[in-house]
Amino acid sequence: MSQYNAPLRDMHFVMKELAGLEQVVQLPGYEEVDTDLSDAILEEASKFAGNVLSPINFSGDQEGSKWHNKAVTVPAGFKEAYTQFAENGWTALACSPEFGGQGLPKLISTAVNEMWKSANMAFSLCPMLTTGAIEALMTAGSDALKQKFLPKMVSGEWTGTMNLTEPSAGSDLAAVRTRAEPQGDGSYKIFGQKIFITYGDHNMTENIVHLVLARLPNAPEGVKGISLFVVPKFMVKDDGSLGERNDAYCVSIEHKLGIHASPTAVMAFGDHGGAVGYLVGEENRGLEYMFIMMNAARFAVGMEGVALAERAYQQAVWYAKDRIQGTELGVRGGPKVSILKHPDVRRLLMSMRSQTEAARALAYVVAAAMDAAKHHPDEAVRAANQAFADLMIPVVKGHSTEMSIEVASEGVQVHGGMGFIEETGAAQHLRDARITAIYEGTTAIQANDLIGRKMAREGGATIKAVIAEMRKLDAKLAAQNGADFVAIRKRFAAGVDALEQAANWIVAIFKDDIKAAHAGSVPFLRLLGIVAGGWQMARAALVAQEKIAGGDSDPFYAAKIVTARFFADHQLTKAQGLTDSIVDGATGTLALAEELF
Amino acid sequence: MKVLVPVKRVVDYNVKVRVKSDGTGVDIANVKMSMNPFDEIAVEEAVRLKEAGIASEVIVVSAGVAGCQETLRTAMAIGADRGILIESDADLQPLAVAKLIKAVADKEQPQVVIFGKQAIDDDSNQTGQMFAALQGWPQATFASKVVIADGKATVTREVDGGLETLEMALPAVVTTDLRLNEPRYATLPNIMKAKKKPLETVKPEDLGVDVAPRLKTLKVAEPAKRQAGVKVADVADLVSKLKNEAKVI
């Protein structure tokens, strides 16, 4: 089994050459940051990821978290790793300096978070959820609540959870039934059950801060009647010390396909008289606050896709180099060779590599847009970046995660029979990847968001602008010499044509036949993911070509052009097929009478 | 008490280097560079001395190309207080480096200089010893334990027969072995602080040191490929082969 080795070369390339790190660190608010600092942070994070988190990934999966008597114990090594992770300041990376964070750009935290996710996805979920809880409190919490909880959450001494889902309220949160009763002293008592609560209980920290969606008495039905509460595992006294145990217990954990080390809790609030909670923000605005954080959370899960694809690729390359089987095609009586010599293994590895690099490039570009959307001095630039990020976040989430499942499956295939055996570690990546296309909004939810809120609602303005931007690359591609660029240009142009055709169709039909539009929504999300990935790979190839022309002999650049060409020939070629499915496929999807299922 | 730690920028230990086709050296273009691991242990030891209240200041010094700044920043992220870069594009050999460090030591007056015992690129294992000789200071090489008290350094050394303990009067030179300590991971706040710590750049000329190479590399070649082994029938066969073919006994 291979250990994780952060792809620093590609990360630096994407950050600097495609996502514009130089421009990002010059944005107001990032005065403390420069590219050298970014390099130093990535370097140290890569050591921690490779040497501390990666070695407990497989063992954590095998052992899993354990539940006993309403408490969860994480697998061996997790508590120590978490303590070190927090002590070394990694939990505070992107948090506000106001509460002890470092306030670093999204672009940098995105690369660093990719490393945690690749090294040990199940581990990384705990700090990820804590970040979500911190952002919720930052967004809507009163100063008193912020002072009480944020410093210790930012420092990682306490972790956070997000309690949204209930047995009958999954994708449809309007159905939340958990109740909150005012106590007259400003606090509330919370009653109800929440499921799928990541790190809802664990033994890594002395306290856990739960954020819980619940209904107040007489709250309106539906989404406008849900409020957000903070419910600590142990009460926090005014001097900051811990008080009595709150009535919030983990009553079981789920047995899952993957992420075994991450405890997925069933949380019972108020079984023994009521869990004490405090209202976050205003009454009945809980879901609204959740939606403010939704972009960040969905983006983070999209990065899990990139990260798992990378890890699966590294494992497959390691095995392919090591595994000797058969002789090289065309070499009669030749020696036994590593399977890396076999064309189909090459195809699988290039498929994994090119899709991972494309997804990383797109995600980092979106991260840089999120930085500009928040910090750029010019309001028009902020708005344009926000629109781009809003459009692309469901794609980063939906496409990268679906891609990671396919890539991890290809990784298993490279291993042959050994990939089906847990000991090689390839299977874990496939199992771990499977959830990413489900939680934080399934791919269908992302696709609905994409074609509805992000496209139809604005008449396709942003997607049209993006397509126009993509087309600008054509002249640059045409100016390059060599067969690789001929292929990249041809396939990319065809991909953009296909994307435009499908986008126009979706925007046009959305009002007339909303079901037909939605029947094509997931294929459209994949289409945009592929073409946007091809866009970034074409940009990458152009930068590489320029470096080579300038005399740079780094083999990374030649490899980038080959990888971009592979992506063009093997992924962009799918674009027209997807468009055909979107435009013509709704009939077949919807025609069958329900009783025939 | 000041502690001086020389650090070297070397090819990362994970990189498999290739010999250049003309046999003049190894190809280090486009490969990852890092701090020499033995030097990292030296920095860690110095920082621990500071944390224990024994050292008042930890100064790191590196001789080499401008990229060594990155190595000095890494050392400052571990906890060194300031850095000195002796910038030179020349091929710096151990004697030249020892002289450069001597010039810095003369100015800074450290009580202890902690070197890594050797650098993983050329494996010379000479600079610390040469520096001690140039200064006329006592030296304890290959340290696995260092205790500093009452103006003395008590150093446990790893030697062939086991462990040897030496006591030296300060100022003194220590070179580190692998088991001296396990270097920490730099914390995020310290990485950010390292950026603001003072880093001074000087040239060999400023220090009055002639760094011209004294050694000439004739040829660099890959080690011979390992031959396939053979199965021996019995112990007698083994002994006979060791005697007559391998000629080792």
TrEMBL record, chain A:
Residue span, Acetyl-CoA dehydrogenase-like C-terminal domain: 475-592
SUPFAM superfamilies in the record: Acyl-CoA dehydrogenase C-terminal domain-like, Acyl-CoA dehydrogenase NM domain-like
Entry annotated with the keyword Cell inner membrane: no
InterPro entries in alphabetical order: Acyl-CoA_dh-like_C_dom, Acyl-CoA_Oxase/DH_mid-dom, Acyl-CoA_Oxase/DH_mid-dom_sf, AcylCo_DH-like_C, AcylCo_DH/oxidase_C, AcylCoA_DH/ox_N, AcylCoA_DH/ox_N_sf, AcylCoA_DH/oxidase_NM_dom_sf
Domain Acyl-CoA dehydrogenase/oxidase C-terminal, first and last residues per copy: 284-450
Cofactor: FAD
Segments forming domain Acyl-CoA oxidase/dehydrogenase middle: 162-235
Domain Acyl-CoA dehydrogenase/oxidase N-terminal: 39-157
One Pfam match: Acyl-CoA_dh_1
Family annotation (Gene3D superfamilies): Acyl-CoA dehydrogenase/oxidase, N-terminal domain (1.10.540.10), Butyryl-CoA Dehydrogenase, subunit A, domain 2 (2.40.110.10), Butyryl-CoA Dehydrogenase, subunit A, domain 3 (1.20.140.10)
This protein's record includes keyword Oxidoreductase: yes
Family of this protein: Belongs to the acyl-CoA dehydrogenase family.
Name by which UniProt lists this protein: Acyl-CoA dehydrogenase
UniProtKB/TrEMBL annotation, chain B:
Name of this chain's protein: Electron transfer flavoprotein subunit beta
UniProt record similarity statement: Belongs to the ETF beta-subunit/FixA family.
Family matches, as SMART domains: ETF
Record-linked InterPro entries: ET-Flavoprotein_bsu_CS (IPR000049), ETF_a/b_N (IPR014730), ETF_b (IPR012255), ETF_beta_N (IPR033948), Rossmann-like_a/b/a_fold (IPR014729)
Keywords in alphabetical order: Electron transport, Transport
UniProt KW Electron transport keyword: yes
Annotated transmembrane regions: none
Species in which this protein is naturally found: Azospira oryzae
Residue span(s) of domain Electron transfer flavoprotein alpha/beta-subunit N-terminal: 23-211
